[in-house]
Amino acid sequence: MVVLPSPLHFSTSFLSSATASTIVALCVFFALLCACIIIGHLLEDSRWANESITALFLGLCSGLVVLLVTNFQSHDILVFNEDLFFLYLLPPIIFNAGFQVKKKRFFRNFNHILLFGVLGTVISFCLISLGAFLLINRIGEVNLDIQDILAIGAILSATDSVCTLQVLSQDETPLLYSIVFGEGVVNDAMSIVIFNSVQSLNFSSINAVKALELLGTFLYLFCTSTILGVAVGLLSAYLIKTFYFGRHSTDREVALMMLMAYFSYMIAELLELSGILTIFFCGIVMSHYTWHNVTGNSRTTTKHSFATMSFISETFIFLYVGMDALDIDNWKASKASIGTSIAVSSTFLALVLIGRAAFVFPIANISNYFVTRESAKIEFRSQFIIWWAGLMRGAVTIALSCNQFSHSETTSQEDSALMITSTITLVLFSTMVFGSITKPLIEAVLLKHSKQTTSDSADYHEELGLLFLESNDSIEQSNNQPFLRWMMRYPATTVHYFWRQFDDNFMRPIFGGWGFVPVVPGTPLTEEEIS
Amino acid sequence: MVVLPSPLHFSTSFLSSATASTIVALCVFFALLCACIIIGHLLEDSRWANESITALFLGLCSGLVVLLVTNFQSHDILVFNEDLFFLYLLPPIIFNAGFQVKKKRFFRNFNHILLFGVLGTVISFCLISLGAFLLINRIGEVNLDIQDILAIGAILSATDSVCTLQVLSQDETPLLYSIVFGEGVVNDAMSIVIFNSVQSLNFSSINAVKALELLGTFLYLFCTSTILGVAVGLLSAYLIKTFYFGRHSTDREVALMMLMAYFSYMIAELLELSGILTIFFCGIVMSHYTWHNVTGNSRTTTKHSFATMSFISETFIFLYVGMDALDIDNWKASKASIGTSIAVSSTFLALVLIGRAAFVFPIANISNYFVTRESAKIEFRSQFIIWWAGLMRGAVTIALSCNQFSHSETTSQEDSALMITSTITLVLFSTMVFGSITKPLIEAVLLKHSKQTTSDSADYHEELGLLFLESNDSIEQSNNQPFLRWMMRYPATTVHYFWRQFDDNFMRPIFGGWGFVPVVPGTPLTEEEIS
């Protein structure tokens, strides 16, 4: 720890030395975060760099400085803390994603999202485990048991939804954004479920029943987590609508929204459900109901403060991953040669590439085969981008890897350290390389290409159809024939229509929402707030 | 710890048991915070209750529930954590106070604030120490050494600026608010300095030189902390003005303001200065310069999100103090009879009452004697309210008390525990009783009384004078005679005039501020934002 000379005998700081170390760490992180924001801003126009890569790079540099200052000894600041990540950094990101997601598009692609997220993760897990089983133990003197191999399968199946959010744009490539991002959220939950199952599985009796039990667990978790998130979101909407806090205080409304969102995550973790799924759906419900029940000032404040918190957490995570990569103890403990390290990392990378290709292209093509509507088909270029954008591995991968190998009893210390360092190498490489290439790649493959306009314009027409339905609720009485034709052609639209009926007649009178709460005088709705 | 049954064999939660306990604690706190907000809202119209008292009461109740559930065993959730308080809860409150304070009024009362805050705290410390020295060791079998006695003097001198903020209104009683609140901020810093000096002092050689050294330390801390806060604030203004973040992202602006504010606190703590003073002045500078350099959305967001964070922290602190009061280990360790406990607590209360009266009335009357201007005089009714509003003791008192007596080596365990429980009793009593009586008392003594209007209207006239100066910068050329008369009558106004000249000609062109940054199209300034 850096000890600064005290200029005077008396000091105001009566805090303990543990606290002093915390203060140093906080100072370093806050200074670095400010630097990331400023550098990220200056690099805004660059196609290659983004905030994640800047943060990762700055994290690596400052980790190096810490190592130099501490003379290459281990330092607390460089050790990855899972609790910090899962309890404080991940929730705001996922909540904000749910809060800002374009709901219509997300739910229209819901079956794609589930297919890629659930089935895809299972395929990827099986393939990566098989590949690891066949390859890893042949490299150098590595010796892993079956449980470690399966854990690696789960660890490498967790895509990084955070970095994906930064390289894909919700406005430029809406279809891809909703599929890749939605898949990411489901995939996070799925890979954590698989990982835990692997950790708790008894390997003396693997059979079909176990596999079915695993699937049952996932379905149970998915449904209960979603219901919990929706319930907390609706409760917040009901409370704010009933008590009408804005009359007295904007702060109370904003505080209640923040607290209840975070509460949904915590209660899900307490009940051993998937907090990620819960807070994501809580965010969706809050943006649909609660957000419309508060005053104009609260709307602006929540919208931007949630985005800001998410932004700070994202930047912090990448900074942290960068610094953590230089946790010298792991590198020292791994006695493997450079050749072995590179071989393991490359194997990991190859497995990730193949594992993802093995489900993206088949699932997309099979789903294309069943879908009759041209606009819902995923053309090959888009499939390629879906494959590519999901190759990045991030903080979830590192967290799971540390969890599996940090305190392993069955695996030798050298092998454990090698697995952790290889995972870190994979994360750094994939984020830096895939992350910086993705933006230019999307531009080259999709945006500048004429083919894309077809799919986009079809999409646009459908959007128009939805708008048409929305603006004209009495359509079924007045003009039944064209509506029926719509219904036959666009079943998703029909579901949406019935949902709107239910929403307007039952949900919104109870929970509020757009147009169902009197506007407070003096807080005019701007166009941005309504959208 | 409450362990909930897991419904299925596999669990998503691979977090450690320490984390599980954290999750339970977070769940409890978030649920309680939501309850506080809703109950506080429902009690809004009550003159007697406020959010602090609701939170304190809820904290006590839930502490009791925890005790019943754990069968009166000690529980982590009930132990006061100084780091949590000083590193995470106090900074947002003090920053927001600086950010929202009415700057003109604050600086006009600056000499009063310094007199009450510095001289007053010293007088209070001396008197309470003397009283404790004469009384405490005669109660029961209490046996404290001179260092403990002096520490008690410092501990009991720390007023609670948080609760004061809730019972005094900036709009109803602006003069009192700025004096009592400003005094509170200086007093916090001062009592912590005295406390640390007492802890590090060598009692074999107390002499006049030591006392002067103490004063020198305080002046050094006050100046350097202020300069640091101002410097960080100006840096944030300069960065945001130069890079003009709003062009790209509202989130970046908001994030940078939050991070730099918190950074100022951390760097002050790192340099062993007073973080409280630093972040307070950082808040003042940020609201004067930085806030005007950002977009309209960012202005609304920062204003309300800072207020919300401060609100959550305040509520949390009182909840925490309430729960902490039931830290059963302290009550068990203190083997004193109920009579002794009550005697010590009552002595503490009496010392606080006398210690505060001993400086408020003399200082106010002496300052009245030197001030010629009628509006700057503090009449007796106001003196009474200043005395009364500063009687509440809060989290700083508990934090200092825990720090002194939790790990004391020289004092017996019984006496240490007795001191801690007596401090807690004092805090609970003063917050509950003085806190709930203050609002009705102010109404009875000041607001409904005709005398007040004189002082307020004089104040109002002066305010008009300031406005007049501001709106007419060329007054000195065109009409010199009346201006000189103003200058002679209101020296404070003259200082303000020169400050404005300096601000307009030198500071604002560099650091931005109201009217010095082009307004972004589409983000009109509302009246509220300008004020």
Automatic annotation (TrEMBL), chains A, B:
Pfam families to which the protein is assigned, alphabetical: Na_H_Exchanger
GO BP term, example: sodium ion import across plasma membrane
UniProt subcellular location: Membrane
GO cellular component, one term: plasma membrane
Ranges for domain Cation/H+ exchanger transmembrane: 44-443
Catalytic reaction annotation: K(+)(in) + H(+)(out) = K(+)(out) + H(+)(in); Na(+)(in) + H(+)(out) = Na(+)(out) + H(+)(in)
UniProt keyword Membrane present: yes
Keyword annotations from UniProtKB, A to Z: Antiport, Ion transport, Membrane, Potassium, Potassium transport, Sodium, Sodium transport, Transmembrane, Transmembrane helix, Transport
Entry-linked PANTHER family: SODIUM/HYDROGEN EXCHANGER, SODIUM_HYDROGEN EXCHANGER
Protein family (similarity comment): Belongs to the monovalent cation:proton antiporter 1 (CPA1) transporter (TC 2.A.36) family.
Protein name (record): Sodium/hydrogen exchanger
Gene: 11407986
